[in-house]
Amino acid sequence: MSVSHTRLTDGADRQRLAATIHEWASPWLASDTLIHIEEPDITSDCPRWLLRFRGDERDYIAVWLTWRQRTLHVETELMPAPEENVDEIYRYLLVKNAEMYPLHVALGPEDGLYLVGRFPVAEITPELLDEITGAAVHFVDELFPTVMSLGFPALYRRRRRR
C-alpha cells in the first residue's frame, strides 16, 4: 500500500497563502459581508488570520485561519459550553455533523462547541476560501439558534428576522 505525504511548507508557501487570502478578502470587504480582517505577521511561528463576518443569528461570526506545518486550520466558535440539555445538544449536532461539509463540529477549550476543518496549504484558493467561510457563516446561522435555545433556555431568545 502506498502512502502519500504532503511536503512541509516553506516561506514561499506562506507568501502565496497570504496573497491568496488578501486577494480573496478584497471584494468581500467591499461588500460589507466580511467586515474586518486581521492579517498576521506571516513570518511568525504560527500566523493566524481573523475574519469577522456579519451574521443573521449572531451579530458577528469570527473565523480563524491558522497556519500549521502543512495545513490551514479553520475554526469558529458555535457556542460556549452548554449549561442545560447537553446530551440533547450533542445528539442534535452529531446528526448534523454527518451532513456538514467542509467543516465539522468539535469540542474545544472549556467544552465550547466549534466548527473546524483542516485543508492542505497547497490547495487553498479563493474559491476554496469562499466555500470554507461560506460554510462557517451558514452553519453558525443555521445551528446557533437551536443549540443556544437548548443550552441556555433562560437566557437565549431567537431573533426575529429583520
Description:
The protein is α+β, with helices and mostly antiparallel strands and about 160 residues long. It has one domain: Yope Regulator, Chain: A (2-Layer Sandwich). The protein has three helices and six strands; from the N terminus they run H-E-E-E-E-H-E-E-H. It has a six-stranded antiparallel sheet. The protein is globular, with a radius of gyration of 17 Å. The model has no long low-confidence stretch (mean pLDDT about 90).
Secondary-structure blueprint of this entry?
Layout: H1 11-31, E1 34-38, E2 48-54, E3 60-67, E4 71-79, H2 86-97, E5 104-107, E6 113-120, H3 126-151
Please provide a brief summary of the model.
This protein is α+β, with helices and mostly antiparallel strands and 162 residues long. It has helices at residues 11-31, 86-97, 126-151, and strands spanning 34-38, 48-54, 60-67, 71-79, 104-107, 113-120. It has one domain: Yope Regulator, Chain: A (2-Layer Sandwich).
Can you give keywords for this protein?
6-stranded antiparallel beta sheet; 6 strands; Yope Regulator, Chain: A; 3 helices; single chain; alpha+beta; 162 residues
By DSSP, the count of extended strands is: 6
Q: Which structural class is indicated by helix and strand composition? A: alpha+beta
End-to-end CA span: 56 Å
Mean pLDDT: 91
Total number of domains: 1
CA-based gyration radius: 17 Å
Shape: globular
The appropriate CATH architecture is 2-Layer Sandwich
Report the order of strands and helices.
Answer: HEEEEHEEH
CATH topology: Yope Regulator, Chain: A
Q: Can you summarize the main beta sheet?
A: 6 strands, antiparallel
